[in-house]
Amino acid sequence: MMLRTYLPYRYLSPTGSLHRLRDVAMYRGDMRRTLERMLTLVEDVHVSFRRNPSPDKQDQEDIPDDLHMSSKAVSIPAWYREDCESIEWVRSQRVAEVDCVHRAAIRAKRSEKDACMAMHMQELQTRHYISEHRKELKRARQQQARDRAAALEQTRIARLMELDRQYDERLAIEAEDRLMRALLSQQKKADEAKAWDAMRIEANKARPDPLALPPDVLAARQAVERERHAQLSMAEEESRTRVYVDAMAKATFLHQCKLRKRQVELDRKAEAKARTAMEREELDENTRLRKIADKIAYNQTLKRMQAADEAYRAKQAEKLFEARCRKLMHNEEMRLHRLYTEVLHRERLRERKERHLMHNDDMYMQRILDEREKLRLRTMEKTHRVEMAVEDVRSHQWRSLEAQATIMALVRLFVIKQFGFFDGHVQAIWSARELKALAAHVQHFPNMLRVNIVLMSSIMGQKRDPPWKVALRWLRMAFRDGYKGPTLLRNIAKCYVKLYEAHLHYNDLSTGWSWYVKACEHLALQASPSFLDEMARALYLLCRFQHAAEILARIIYSFPTYVRMPTVIFRAAMLMWHLGLYEQSTDYLLHLLESPPAPWTDLDLMFLIARLYLLDENKAHATFAYDDAFRRYRVHGFHFQYPSWKAWVGDAAVWRHFGAKALAANEYLVAKDLYQQVIKRRHDEVQVEHRQEVGIFVGKHRDGVG
């Protein structure tokens, strides 16, 4: 169909519904490219709106005016476009100024925060100096007390030594006194013996003894007797001397033993005192080192908390800034949309006014003609208007049919290539050649097939779960036909896992894992964190917890910017829990405490952390964690009647709540542990109620007997 060369834009308005789509400044991405393609298709189609292609003289005269009006109408959108671009440039300049002001405010706030941090650190240093000075004073006082105690001990030892010396002197004096008394008694006895001898001699002189010896014999006998008495006295003196010497030696030995024993006791006491002082000094040193270590740990924890707080605030500020930017962009787009709508409305009004003016001019010109010419012109005008309406309707219908055909063909190819739940009742209006071209296009660009399930359900009108069996059948058929790409293998494995989650057939799960192993042969999937996440999920369902934990650890180490990283860390923590690595699991959950993954909250994570501390036999940390969880429970606004966290933890309903949440999130290992705690607490409650009922029954029985 050929277009009339002398009237190209007479009956097809340049500001109509088709040419208005040229100004697609408000559209972005695929929608803009689709509209531009539709406009090119419409501009390439030549349409004739007249049955009689022969021009007349009046039409030849109207051609320059029509061309001028058409060019003017075409230039108007360009003017508006330039105006919009200038407004957009001004808006971007304002946004840049606002951004600069915002960044300056952030820098000022950051400098103020650094100053506050410096003041805080200076205050901490001052407190540290004061505490060190106090410790020095305390150590000086303790040293003075130790010196006084040592002086007192030395004085006491000197006094004891003086008492020992006095005691020894007293013993020596007493021994000497005893010796003198013995000598005096012996001398007295000797004197008495001499006196008795003298008296006996005098008596013998008065009475001579008939048995007395002669004087010369008597003198010899007396000399012998004196010699014998001298020998006896010498022997007796020697024996007494020996006894005295033995007694003195024994006393000296006993005194020396006593001194040695006292010295040993003094040495033992001094050694014990020195050991006690050394132990006390070592204890003080250990206490000081522990305090220093606690202080260093506190400073490190404070720095980490400050860094985490700063990161969280920066993240919140960035989110707020992004939200503000999105809000400004949305407001600007809405303003441009309203402006463009108003411009189009005014253009329509102007066009209608011009049409009425043209119609009035035509009517004025037609009055001077005859009735037949007037009837012919009226018939021609009506014919032209009807053709314009019909052509507009046909063009709109054709464009809508092309859009529907595009969607239907894409949906059909997507369903056949990915899911396979196309029922065959909807038929595309494209030709076989176009369908082959589109199929080849989709085959070479598989990213086009990643369409949201929600969009598919809205297009197909299905509000139920996707038919994984049908999708699996179509995917297996495609695999047999030779389509053995990594995406196809991954989708087949995913379908098997979904079938297992829906029907719990272990054969589906094992088959899905075999398909995952086949898909691992492709390097593109080995570098995909989402694929590794799916593999870890399949291993988790296969109860291969160690391998699943290793894959999740690889994701955490190799892909730190993964979108679902919080969920991956949480699943890794749950696997560590099941493997008995409570400390690592606690560290993972503490890392997620500030930004927990959906549907978990900080209350849930703190409750799980307290449970892990209890399993790790760390009762002090578990008590603190349960108390913190109870405080978060109150902050979250739950209605409760618990006086303390112990009553809250002892209630089985609380554990059942967290167990149900874990089960809804498909965390079966955690749900198992929590439900076991529910059963345990229910059993304890039943025992308590049973004991109370038995006590009430016994009390009533006693009252009845009494």
Shape: rod-shaped
Q: Which residues form runs of ≥5 with pLDDT under 50?
A: 1-25, 42-53, 413-430, 437-457, 686-706
Strand-residue proportion: under 5%
Helix content: over 70%
Mean pLDDT: 76
What structural category do the secondary elements indicate? Answer: mainly alpha
The SSE order reads HHHHHHHHHHHHHHHHHHH
**Rg to the nearest angstrom?**
58 Å
Question: Would you count the extended β strands for me?
Answer: 0
Task: Tell me the span between the first and last alpha carbons.
Answer: 117 Å
Discrete helix count? 19
Largest sheet: none
Q: What can you tell me about this protein's structure?
A:
The protein is mainly alpha-helical. Among the domains are: 257-393; 563-697, Serine Threonine Protein Phosphatase 5, Tetratricopeptide repeat. The protein has 19 helices and no strands. It has helices at 30-44, 57-206, 215-367, 371-419, 432-444, 453-460, 468-480, 486-503, 506-519, 523-526, 529-541, 545-558, 565-578, 582-591, 602-615, 619-635, 645-650, 652-664, 668-705. It starts with 29 loop residues before the first helix and ends with a helix. Residues 1-25, 42-53, 413-430, 437-457 and 686-706 have low confidence and may be disordered.
Concise description?
Helix content is 82%, strand content 0%. The chain is mainly α.
Notable characteristics:
single chain; 706 residues; mainly alpha; Serine Threonine Protein Phosphatase 5, Tetratricopeptide repeat; rod-shaped; disordered N terminus
